[in-house]
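[agent] plan:
  1. take the single chain provided in the ticket
  2. run structure prediction with default settings
  3. attach structure tokens to the ticket
  4. add a short note for the reviewer (M.T.)
[agent] executing step 1
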Amino acid sequence: MKKIALYPGTFDPITNGHFDIIERALSLFDEVIIAVAISQDKKPMFTLQERIQMTNEAVKHLENVQVVGFDNLTVELAKERGATILIRGLRAVSDFEYELQLGYLNNSLDDSIETVYLMPKLQHAFISSSIVRNLLKFNAKTEHLLPKEVQKIIGSMTACTLQ
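[agent] step 2 finished; step 3 output follows
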């Protein structure tokens, strides 16, 4: 039976840490679906379409990966897509409590879906989308934090807003 994993998140924007988790998940599962959440509550910097575009560009060279947008419960999306595994990233102990609660909640909604926690490589452990967004607000260097395709898209967006 094909093992399909769903990696949900806001990806505002997708970072090298996210990309590392995606590559690790691909080594474990047959297919990885990256689910980009609308996340109105988080007031994302980038629109859903921009985040989907950036994510698609970052993973376009990987096989068995697809990117979808969503605005429903993660377990509902997993069921719709045939995914039986949810991927969650853990960078630090501070992530653990929230992610554990979320994993238990998802399991209470559908106990046929397992949550797997993956850690990025140490070199990416400090990277978060919120750090990147803060740097972008100050036009600071982000090339070392983002996939080059994402950096290019953001650079072209910044150039357009400056004109």
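[agent] step 4 note for reviewer: The longest helix spans residues 93-109.
[agent] ticket updated
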